[in-house]
Amino acid sequence: QVFLVEKTGRRSLFLAGLMGMLISAVAMTVGLVLLSEFAWMSYVSMVAIFLFVIFFEVGPGPIPWFIVAELFSQGPRPAAIAVAGFCNWTCNFIVGMCFQYIADLCGPYVFAIFAALLLVFFLFAYFKVPETKGKSFEEIAAVFRRKKLPAKAMTELEDLRGSEEA
After folding, report:
1. 128 CB-near residues (< 8 Å, 6+ apart)
2. Coil, helix or strand for 144?
3. 22 and 76 housed in the same domain
4. What is the phi/psi pair of residue 125, to 5°?
5. How many Å apart are CA 51 and CA 71, to the nearest integer?
6. What's CA 51's distance to the chain center, in Å?
7. Which one of 70, 80, 107, 121 has the fewest CB atoms closer than 10 angstroms to its CB?
8. Membrane-crossing residues (predicted)?
9. Per-residue pLDDT at 26 exceeds 60
């Protein structure tokens, strides 16, 4: 896993995992909806479940831990990881406790909810999450500052380089 992350990059692997999970969730929904008409749809659903887990384990399972650790400097990093872990386990608990009720309510369309959420997560990651592979904390922070500040604003790193040359 670590070699794959270092070779392909965190963001691209995360996006590929989210998209694979999205397609798998749609396939599970189609498989469950058409199960009463076509018996072989059970195989489609099973393959979709296995692919969903595989894509999760390649992208959204481990990659957020890499990204969270790289987005924060040494001081706030432990707190950020603690908040990320708390959010992760809280969402896991909510899904685990509510899934049966949602499945009873939605029937075969239960995975359409996951597909919709995965689409939102994919779009958010595509537009807001930077690639952190091979970048220092300062470079990553500069990417976020460039999105907020006008194009003419200098980053701290450029500020330091300018003062060293003088």
Report:
1. none
2. helix
3. yes
4. -65, -40
5. 29
6. 16
7. 107
8. 12-34, 40-58, 79-103, 109-127
9. yes
**Percent of the chain that is helix, strand, coil (3-state, to 5):** 80, 0, 20
Instruction: Return the exposure string of 66-77: e unless at least 16 CB atoms fall within 10 Å of the residue's CB, then b.
Output: bbbebbbeeeee
The arithmetic mean of pLDDT across residues 123-151, rounded, is 78
Q: Which range marks the domain in which residue 112 is found?
A: 1-134
Q: Give the integer Cα–Cα distance in Å for 46 and 53.
A: 11
pLDDT, residue 39, reads 93
pLDDT, mean over the chain:
85
Look-up: residue for tokens 């195989």?
43
Residue 38, CB-side half-sphere exposure with 13 Å CA sphere: 11
Q: What is the CATH number of the domain that holds 89?
A: 1.20.1250.20
**Contact 59/18 with Cβ under 8 angstroms?**
yes
| Euclidean distance between CA atoms 133 and 10, whole angstroms | 6
CA atoms within 13 A on the CB side of 73: 5
- The mean per-residue pLDDT over the stretch 84-88 comes to 91
Q: Is the pLDDT of residue 9 over 90?
A: no
151 pLDDT tier (thresholds 50, 70, 90) = very low
What percentage of the chain reaches a pLDDT higher than 90? 57
The answer to whether residues 91 and 159 belong to one domain is no
Q: Which two tokens stand for residue 133?
A: 């592979």
